[in-house]
Amino acid sequence: MQHRISRFPIRWIWPLVIILMIGAGWLTSSIWLPALKGFVQSSVAGFRSSSPEMGHDHEAGADEHAGHDHASHAGHDESSSLELSEQAIRNIGLSA
After folding, report:
1. How far is it, in rounded angstroms, from Cα 27 to Cα 19?
2. Residue span of the structural domain in which 28 resides
3. Is residue 27 domain-resident?
4. pLDDT in tens for each of the 96 residues of the chain?
5. Within its chain, how far is the Cα of 58 from the centroid?
6. How far is CA 55 from CA 29, 43, 49, 51, in A?
7. Cα-flanking dihedrals φ and ψ of residue 63, to 5°?
8. Does a structural domain hold residue 17?
9. Per-residue DSSP letter, 78
10. Which residue, 5, 10, 84, 87, shows the most beta carbons closer than 10 Å to its own?
């Protein structure tokens, strides 16, 4: 005596798993969502406080390095330096 097991189409497994996971997330959101919001807010606040624009004690137009010759540094080692092309300088935003 053979029993025929009805087969659930395999192509429906992944969509069903995704729908079940979305439903489980929605049902449990009251547990994890407040913690996630707190984490995001503290992370954003941390990034804002460590922003390079904040905390400067000099005027916006003042340049600490004005008048220095940046090309001749004492102890400059050619083996650990790079020479960038104009395109590379523009790509990383070092010039306008």
Report:
1. 12
2. 9-51
3. yes
4. 566 666 767 888 899 999 999 999 999 999 999 999 999 998 888 877 765 555 555 555 555 555 555 555 566 677 778 888 888 888 888 875
5. 29
6. 38, 18, 8, 8
7. -120, 115
8. yes
9. G
10. 84
Whole-number Å distance between alpha carbons of 96 and 90: 7
The pLDDT of residue 48: 79
CA 71 to chain centroid, in Å, comes to 33
What DSSP element (H or E) covers 29? helix 29-49
Q: Letter for the amino acid at 14? A: W
Q: What are phi and psi of 38, to 5 degrees?
A: -65, -40
Question: Structurally, how many domains does the chain consist of?
Answer: 1
Residue 93 zone, left/alpha/beta (φ > 0; ψ -120 to 50; rest): left
Stretch (H or E) spanning 87: helix 86-91
Domain-embedded: residue 96 = no
What pLDDT is stored for residue 33 in this prediction? 94
pLDDT value of residue 83: 85
Q: Token digits for 27?
A: 């049902």
